[in-house]
Design a protein that fits this description.
By secondary structure, the protein is of the alpha/beta class. It has one domain: 3-Layer(aba) Sandwich (Rossmann fold). It has helices at 13-23, 43-50, 66-79, 96-101, 124-134, 169-193; strands at 2-8, 30-37, 54-57, 84-87, 106-110, 138-145, 155-162, 197-200, 203-206. The protein is globular and about 45 Å long. The protein binds 5-O-phosphono-beta-D-ribofuranosylamine (GRF).
Length: 209
């Protein structure tokens, strides 16, 4: 059984997709040990509690220094002894100590087809506005392992989504979530929990059983 912990910052629709997939067996061999948010008001915490999952807020604002926050976050995560950490809309820079400790054991959902529309300081809507401004016809989402670079870790799954002529950024973001994020994030967890992928030379390979 793969034990996972989920880090969130906001509404938690990706978290909900994971919870639903575990409950309806779209994800197998997996249990959710904790949900941690940096934001006390994240609705994701409510979603977790409704399903009897340990839900905690660890806010940087409660600590004098970033180092103290990072240590508290790492200590709390370590206390659960999970096999995989899932970043589901987590808007905090992940401490490099955590990334080193959990090499190829942290995954992230990213609302574009990496390596298009990446970069420091970019986030969701801005990318979609970029897509709209430049007339790009296809966008999508990516699930990747987290390494110490920005959006540079091995890619696990990607799914393309059509950009329509009259899309607003809100309409497009919703379509990317519905058609891509909520599907490929649970799918990636299921691949990992069933030993279906391996990282070889910094690339994800599917393992046939
Ligand atoms: C998603 O678009 C995700 O790709 C991005 O943040 C958003 C999180 O939404 N990084 P939610 O909290 O899962 O609803």
């Amino acid at each position: 059984m793969l034990k996972i912990g989920v880090l969130v910052s906001g509404g938690g629709t990706n978290l909900q997709a994971i919870i639903d997939a575990v409950e309806n067996n779209t994800i197998t061999n997996t249990s959710i040990s904790f949900v941690i948010s940096n934001n006390p008001n994240a609705y994701a915490l409510e979603r977790a509690r409704k399903h009897n999952i340990d839900a905690k807020c660890i806010s940087p604002k409660s600590f004098e220094t970033r180092e103290q926050f990072n240590e508290a976050l790492i200590d709390t995560i370590n206390s659960y002894h999970v096999d995989l950490i899932v970043l589901a809309g987590f808007l905090v820079i992940v401490p490099s100590k955590l990334i080193k400790q959990y090499e190829n054991k942290i995954i992230n959902i990213h609302p574009s087809l990496i390596p298009s529309f990446c970069g420091t300081g970019y986030y969701g809507l801005k990318v979609h506005e970029g897509v709209l401004e430049r007339g790009v016809k296809i966008t999508g989402a990516t699930v990747h392992f987290v390494d110490e670079g920005t959006d540079t870790g091995p890619i696990i799954l990607q799914k393309a989504v059509e950009v329509k002529d009259d899309d607003t950024s809100e309409v497009l973001q919703k379509r990317v979530m519905e058609e891509a994020e909520w599907k490929i994030l649970p799918e990636a967890i299921d691949l990992i929990s069933n030993g279906r992928i391996a990282v070889v030379n910094n690339k994800v390979k599917k393992v046939s059983l």
